[in-house]
Amino acid sequence: MSPEPPVTGLLDRYAEQAGLDAIEQLRQLARLLTGLKVVHVNSTRTGGGVAEILDAMVPLMQELGLDTSWEVIEGNEDFFTCTKSFHNALQGKSLDIPPRLLRAYEDVNAMNAERLRPVLEEADVVFVHDPQPAPLLSHCPGRRGKWIWRCHIDLSHPYRPVWKYVRRFLPGYDASVFSLDAFAQPMPHPVYLIPPSIDPLSEKNLPLDPETVRKVLEEFGIDPHRPMVLQVSRFDRFKDPLGVIQAYRLAKDFVPGLQLVLAGGSAVDDPEGEMVVEDVRNAARDDPDIHVLSSGHYSDRIINALQTGADIVLQKSLREGFGLTVTEAMWKGKPVIGGNTGGIRLQLVNHRTGFLVDTPEGAAMRIRYFLTERHRMAQIGQNARELVRQNFLLTRHLREYLTIMVALIHGNEDRIELG
Amino acid sequence: MIDFAIKDCALAIMATGRRAQTLRELRDILRDIHPGCIYHHFWGTLLRPQFIDREYNNDFATWCHHSLHDGTAAERLAVIDPADFHDMEELRQELIEVIDERLDETEVMLFARADQQFHFARSVIVVFDTYKRLSDPRELVDVLPRLSVGSIFYHLIDARRREPIAVDDFRAWLMGLGAEYAGLCDSLAEIDPYFESLFTLRDRLTNVLTSYFYPEPSETERGPAAEGGA
Q1: Which one of A21, A192, A415 has the shortest CB-CB distance to B125?
Q2: For the whole model, what pTM was predicted?
Q3: Is the pLDDT assigned to residue A3 strictly greater than 70?
Q4: Where are the domains of chain A?
Q5: For residue A312, what are the β-bridge partners?
Q6: Does residue A195 sit at the B interface (CB-CB below 8 Å)?
Q7: Chain B closest CA to A191's CA: distance in Å?
């Protein structure tokens, strides 16, 4: 017998943000899957976009009547060093990984499989997020459900030797999901495309009152009366924090009151972050208007206040799977200046929702433009918020997961008509 | 009276791994690509999450304009109305015809940037019944604003490729109810579904139906009191 969905009112709260129609559609779709056992597996409970999405997605799936759980694999330092190297190499960095680390990767997965096997083999649908837990499938010979490899990173130009190693764990999956077609690699199974989303009910995205925002800014020594540009991201070379500092310096010649905030926590699975923070601190050392917020974990509410208090949000990445911070800023009605790369290129439309730039010089020019043409900022912010509401909230993301599950269970025909 | 069965649908979009960097490559792939890809790049784009407003009614035209910078090809591809074609094969032939014509008159081969290639995708459409039924067209006025965009897509867009009538489901239903709704059908036919988001289309449909069933009283019907006199 199917379990009764827990009644928490969560869906009603999403309806206030995404619209009743979107929620009613989720209920209808979920009815086709009621009682299914669904398991998500990733490598960290906190930090990074995947954990954020699962944190919101899992309770929603539960409330829709799917028997959903979230498992996290436990790793050691070698394992996370290895998977961080995967992350960099799969996004294009030439990086050979020592056999010792690859052994740690495989051993950690084998150990976790011992613990998780009963849950995974019994599940109707298993979503395995990113390369970290990918080998779990090979340790579950008694699996009965559909296994989906969900790749959140940009695999368009992977460093081939590392991709060749990782992909050997993937053929057994029933499907893969990539964020964009340009990020996908050929697979021996169906490849679906689902752009990521943001959670409008998370602490990071709920509206804040101006007083709260002001207090947070002052807490970090940021003057709320002077213009502020912000980049929120992990301290990672692909996010180009040094390029952001260069852009700020070029713009500050014309806007002397300008302040820059670089804020980002580090995830448990990111040991390289500390080195990047050190470089950023060195570059920012002589300027009190550059605020590097890197020590410790900043609450989502603080990040929200920084985004809400910013005049302009930057995401000047050199490589980006999909800029969640871009979508978050757009949801808060902020103009965004983003690196002309990956998913950001689809998120930002010049003059409509922000600007795409290729260089620090380009970013500086657009900062100056926005701070001069302030009326455009409000207009662009309004466009951006509505686009996100219609297309990039968690409810749309969930709808597509449900659709894929239905498609896989019903044979993946071009057209599936159900009662 | 026949009831109107409200259905809903959702798309799962699939990558094919095939991509084009020039108009010639686009044509070559179109020759043998799965017909579901052609459907997806004409209609699926409406139900796909995206950040841009629709400028052209299909992805081929959009790509020619934005990535190949071939405005002529974009404009010619954009005037193709997929509803004019009996099936995907006929539509495929028309696309190839238009591209061939453009290739014949072009002396220089234009290339898209490597990171702006045309990626062929297709969609799996999952259609499901909402078990809501309408027996009177007036009910549409209340129900339409609350329909999901998936329902709007299914009844307004997807219906156009369903034989034998090949018009949207709203008109198909109204036509079946007799001549009394002919005027309403004409008004609904004026909605061009290819340029606006499904959210906007839902608003437009609602407005047409509201105006038809609950017209604003004319100046004479309102009388002098309504004009502010007393």
Answers
A1: A415
A2: 0.84
A3: no
A4: 10-197+393-409, 210-391
A5: A229
A6: yes
A7: 5
Contact of A91 with A156, CB cutoff 8 Å = no
**A-chain residues within 8 Å CB-CB of B126?**
29, 403, 406-407, 410, 416, 418
Q: Are strands A259-263 and A175-178 parallel, antiparallel or unpaired?
A: unpaired
Q: Select A10-197+393-409's CATH number: 3.40.605.10, 3.30.70.1030, 3.40.50.2000, 1.10.3810.10.
A: 3.40.50.2000
pLDDT digit string, tens, across residues B151-198: 999 999 889 877 777 789 999 999 999 899 999 999 999 998 877 788
Question: What does the DSSP 8-state code read for residue A297?
Answer: P
Tokens at A7, concatenated = 């009644």
pLDDT band at B53, cuts 50/70/90?
low
Q: State the ipTM, two decimals.
A: 0.86
Q: What is the pLDDT of residue A81?
A: 95
Give the CA distances from residue B143 to residues A21, A304, B135, B205, in Å, rounded to whole numbers and listed in that order: 11, 37, 12, 11
Least confident of A136-140, A181-185, A387-391, B60-64: A387-391
User: Residue A264 carries which side chain, given as an amino acid letter?
Assistant: G
d(CA B22, CA A392): 31
List the Cα angle B202/B206/B210 in 5-degree steps.
Answer: 175
- Select from B46, B51, B119 the residue whose CB has the most chain A CBs within 10 Å, as the one to mutate to test that interface: B51
Whether A340 and chain B come into contact, CB under 8 Å, resolves to: no
Mean pLDDT over the full length of chain B: 88
Phi, psi of B163 (to 5 degrees): -75, 160
pLDDT in tens, B135-162: 999 999 999 999 998 999 999 988 987 7
Contacts of A136 (CB under 8 A, 6+ apart): A41, A73, A109, A112, A113, A116, A120, A128
Which homologous superfamily does the CATH classification assign to the domain defined by A210-391?
A: Glycogen Phosphorylase B; (3.40.50.2000)
CB-based contacts of A179: which residues, under 8 Å, 6+ apart?
A151, A152, A154, A193, A194, A195, A196, A321, A322, A343
Find residue A148's DSSP bridge partners: A127, A175
Q: Is residue B224's pLDDT more than 80?
A: no
Q: What are the backbone angles phi and psi of residue A292, rounded to the nearest 5°?
A: -100, 110
The interaxial angle of helices B182-189 and B198-213, nearest 10 deg, is 150
Structure tokens at B73: 């090809």
Residues of chain A numbered 31-70 and touching chain B (CB < 8 Å): 32
Specify the pairing of strand B4-20 against strand B118-134: antiparallel
**CB pairs < 8 Å spanning A and B:** 104
Greatest C-alpha distance within chain A: 68
> B16 vs A35, A156, A264, B40, CA distance in Å?
32, 14, 36, 12
pLDDT for the residue B49: 63
Euclidean distance between CA atoms B179 and B126, whole angstroms = 33
pLDDT digit string, tens, across residues A208-227: 999 999 999 999 999 999 99
Q: Among A281-290, B33-42, B217-226, whose mean pLDDT is lowest?
A: B217-226
b/e burial code for range A368-388 (CB count within 10 A of at least 16 → b): bbbbeeeeebeebbebbbebb
Rounded to a whole number of angstroms, the distance from the CA of B18 to the nearest CA of chain A is: 9
Q: Which two tokens stand for residue A303?
A: 């990040």
Report the alpha-carbon distance of residue A112 to residue A307 in Å, rounded. 38
